[in-house]
Amino acid sequence: MTSSLSVLFLASEAEPFVKVGGLGDVAGSLPRALRVQGVDIRLVIPLHGTIRRSEYDLHPLTSFEVPHRGGPIPAEVYTIELDGLPVYLIAGAPFRPDVPVYSDDWGFDAHKYIFFSLAALELARSINWQPGILHANDWHTAAAVYWLALNRSSDRLYQQTASLLTVHNLPYLGAAGGVPLGAFGLPPASDSPLPEWARHLPLPLGLLTADYISAVSPTYAQEILTPEFGSGLHEFLSTRADTITGILNGLDQELWNPAFDSFLKSNYHPADLTLREANKLILQQEMALPVDPGVPLLGFIGRLNHQKGVDLILEALQDLLELPWQIVFLGSGDPVLERAIQQLQLDHPTRVRSALRYDADLSHHIYAGADALLVPSRYEPCGLVQMIAMRYGCVPIARATGGLKDTVIEKAGSHTNGFIFAEAAPEALAEAIRRALTLYSDRPRWKALQRQGMQCDFSWEKSAREYHLLYQKLMKERHP
Ligand code: ADP
Predict the structure, then answer these.
(1) Protein residue closest via CA to atom 9 of ligand 1
(2) Backbone torsions φ then ψ of 40, nearest 5 degrees
(3) Is the CB of 299 under 6 A from ligand 1?
(4) How far apart (Å, rounded) are the C-alpha atoms in residues 149 and 164?
(5) Helix or strand holding residue 134 (H, E)
(6) CA atoms 146, 147, 152, 154: torsion sign
(7) Ligand 1: which atom is nearest the Cα of residue 303?
(8) How buried is 13 (Cβ within 10 angstroms: 0-12 exposed, 13-18 middle, 19+ buried)?
(9) By CB distance 3.0 to 4.6 Å, which of 63, 100, 102, 110 could disulfide with 180?
(10) Cβ atoms of 88 and 59 closer than 8 Å
């Protein structure tokens, strides 16, 4: 590795080891893309109980203890190289086999991820590797940024290290983090521009002390400065506006490529969209829907919660019963929403199907087989599903917020790649679906729309270059 830029990249999840949502996609691909650009970046994730160790050739690397008021907690680190990227996986008592990646026990999750954050810093010390940049992601690893700010001046290894904290989802602040932070020796930030209630929570403390903050899309970087999206931190974040930037996530072009996707029975690319049609029939069959190439097939993929606007879909569809459509839901989450989807399926057995689970195979089948994907999120820091959908010729119908606004374009002319609506209301979504269904009947124009989406460049290369430039800027500022 020739670059002098060394980056310790911390995340709670990363493909291919463990993925719950978009953060797993990002942490799986961004470090590899940066490595290609010559950055000596190393990825650190927890060795979660859900990771199947036997699938990976993990080598023991080092072990040490993380100081804790209740007694030091032993950590063991394993390593593996992934396409040239060194990956370090941290094991320890908080990551017992029965513990999920994220749980409802906020206090325990905070304990677990603060342990992880501090162990990741200790790991670099243990292998005597000096990171120029500490790049943390979301609340799970924000405690590392805070530790760095508190200890940098007296710590030989980290004296020169700059920090970047990327916000993938602001509302998750690390609730119940105060007590565990204290137990790991991290005091609240009294007398700071943070609101009182936020002074002992991991993400706000990271946002307070990071040298730079990035959000995962330019629009989200602006939105978090407003009362609607700022999770109570907008006034504080506005004081940091000159150190906040937005960099859109990219897509793993190999993983998400309809021309080579091994989950698909019929591969295709923009020049031969007729090959795509088989995937729709296969999906209808797989989901036991009436097999009909002519009926517009809608899809939804994502966590079932308020953020994703699933309730808006359920209401909007009631307004559209006079039109032909089918829909497949894939996702799990809020039991109320799960039951509502099941009820919709009971009410409309020839139109609605759901798979209330996480299912990677089926997600590929939906991207390749559905005609349009509904993404009516109330907020969406970046959103990957709309980008994946476009790459697969599945036209997104999305709300104009965060990364959806930055990637889905509906306007006169050749730039249109989907349908977009402004208000988080069922009527607005229904209206956008209507526009889509109208265009769907004009086959040549619909195909042109599919192709337009498929040709958009959502590769990591461009975004990685922006992170690379940001790292360089941070290094320059720390070593003027
Ligand atoms: P978020 O990070 O908020 O969950 P994103 O749109 O950024 O949403 O990323 C979601 C990622 O997780 C996408 O890769 C999507 O395909 C995948 N995904 C979400 N729900 C499911 C599911 N139930 N089964 C399979 N993949 C899913």
Answers:
(1) 22
(2) -80, 75
(3) no
(4) 12
(5) strand 133-137
(6) positive
(7) 20
(8) buried
(9) 110
(10) no
Enter the tokens of residue 119. 């162990």
For residue 1, what pLDDT is reported? 45
What is residue 360's predicted lDDT score, i.e. its pLDDT? 93
State residue 3's pLDDT score. 58
Q: Which residue has the tokens 């907690």?
A: 73
Ligand 1 centroid to Cα of residue 365, in Å, is 14
Residue nearest to atom 24 of ligand 1 (CA): 358
Task: Give the dihedral sign, CA 99/104/108/113.
Answer: positive
Query: What is the per-residue pLDDT for 254?
Result: 87
CA distance 92 to 157: 23
pTM exceeds 0.90 for this model:
yes
The pLDDT score that the predictor gives to residue 180 is: 97
For 15, the token pair is 């493909």
Q: Is 249 in the pocket of ligand 1 (CB under 6 A)?
A: no
Six-digit token string for 370: 């559905």
List the structure tokens of 312: 């808006």
Name residue 265's amino acid. Answer: K
Report CA 283 to chain centroid distance, whole Å: 26
CA distance readout (Å), 18 to 13, 146, 247: 5, 25, 23
Neighbours of 50 (CB within 10 A): 15
Ligand 1, atom 19, residue with closest C-alpha: 302
CA of 157 to the centre of ligand 1 (A): 37
CA of 2 to the centre of ligand 1 (A): 35
What does the radius of gyration of the chain's CA atoms come to, in whole angstroms? 23
Ligand 1 atom at minimal distance to the Cα of residue 384: 6
Q: Are 307 and 377 in contact (CB under 8 A)?
A: yes
- Fill in the amino acid letter for 455: Q
Q: Is 384 close to ligand 1, i.e. is its CB under 6 Å away?
A: yes
Residue 428 and residue 422: Cα distance in Å, rounded?
7
Q: For residues 112 and 388, give the distance between their C-alpha atoms in angstroms, rounded to a whole number.
A: 32
Contact (Cβ atoms closer than 8 angstroms) between residue 34 and residue 48: no
Q: Are 169 and 381 in contact (CB under 8 A)?
A: yes
Give yes or no for a contact between 240 and 213, defined as CB atoms under 8 angstroms apart: yes
Element housing 97 (H / E): none
* 385 Cα–ligand 1 center, Å: 6
d(CA 31, CA 41): 6
- Determine how many CB atoms are found less than 10 A away from the CB of residue 443: 9
Backbone φ/ψ region at 219: left (φ over 0), alpha (ψ -120 to 50), beta: alpha
- 403 ligand 1 Cβ < 6 A: no
Ligand 1: distance of its center to the CA of 217 in Å? 17
Query: What residue ranges of the chain have pLDDT lower than 70?
Result: 1-3, 413-414
The secondary structure of residue 284, as a DSSP letter, is H
**Of 144, 261, 291, 310, nearest to 211 (Cα)?**
144
